[in-house]
Prior knowledge:
The chain is of the alpha/beta class. It contains 14 helices and 14 strands. The strands form 3 sheets. A 6-stranded mixed sheet has the order 6-5-4-7-8-14. A 5-stranded mixed sheet has the order 11-10-9-12-13, with helices on both faces. Strands 1-3-2 form a 3-stranded antiparallel sheet.
Amino acid sequence: MNTLWSKATETPALTESARAVLRTIAGGGPATRPQLSAALAFSKPTMSAAVNELERLGLLAPAGVNRGSVGRTSVTYGLGRAAGYVIGVDCGTTHISGVVEGLDGASHATLERALPDTSAENRFLMIEQLVADLLGQFDALAAPLRAVVVALPNIISQSLDRMLGRDVLLAVLARLDSVYGAPLLLENNVNCAALAEFHEGAAKDYSFAMYMQIGVKTGMGIVLDGKLFRGFRGGAGEIGHLPFPWSETAQPTWQHVETYMGSAALLERAAAIWPPSEGKPPESASELFARADHSPVALKIVEQHAQDIGNLAAACVSVLDPELIILGGGVGQNPRLLPGVRSVVEKLCWPVHVVNGQLANQATVRGAVRLAIDFAMARLLGEEGKSAFLHQTSSSTDP
């Protein structure tokens, strides 16, 4: 293993007062010693010892000077270089993207690429190249890599027992561990998007939100008090598996909700009823929505899709009773759907605030970064970092 990279996973043993200071600055941003003392009720000697300890380890560093009203100045401290950085990767069905961000929120590198081959095995192999190229954009060895989170459009469990291309993925993770020595985590892509909307987007002011992704595929992420609810096996929110259709004359088929609600099936239904007088049928969901401005046929299809999404949302609301529903994904984020979805939810259960996501196609990779920062900070503080899947090696054991 490259010894420079292996040092990235070392976790210093901190005193309780140093952990408290680090936790406060990580959560609230840069602060002065007097501000920290007031927030933590520490004496001046205790605060000085804690700050000196963190400065010595490079986890804290001066970030500026604060000038008081009577001319006094005090140093503002923020996270230091040794706090390190993390990588978030969104390995989707058609694109792969990545972000490198410091634990202090500083952006270091971003990349996005189309996938020439969308098979599971090829997508997984692309992760290695993306990580290498991201780290090549800046002086990566100047600070420790604390965690890598990869978001995938799959159910994520500790065994990955239902993962298509599982052996290829595990081999990729093993090689990444060998090169970089940082903890490697996997998470469901919709869960990541939900987490991002909670911290940075539409759900910032809510404690209980569910994020519905309606696009190429269908899924839901559930966030309660800033924590992801994954269920017993990691399958919570897999609304594509709900029984559908269901009546006296029809029997549910496997993943029919996913198939029916997906953008490909939506365009197929549009093509089936599209009148020749309106030219060629829409070739994308965005074209369909745009043509709804002047085409009664397109408008009818869009309104029906809003009703279908509303039916799906109402089923979830009846079980979970969230404060907020966020509509995301390539189709779900279109504002045209909101009135219809809101109407159906209110009619079938009770009024719930329904909004479009604010992070669009960046939601998943932003959530992967957030998860990586939370995990890395927990490790620095000597706490247990929660994850759906953690690649188990000597470098990823709990401190």
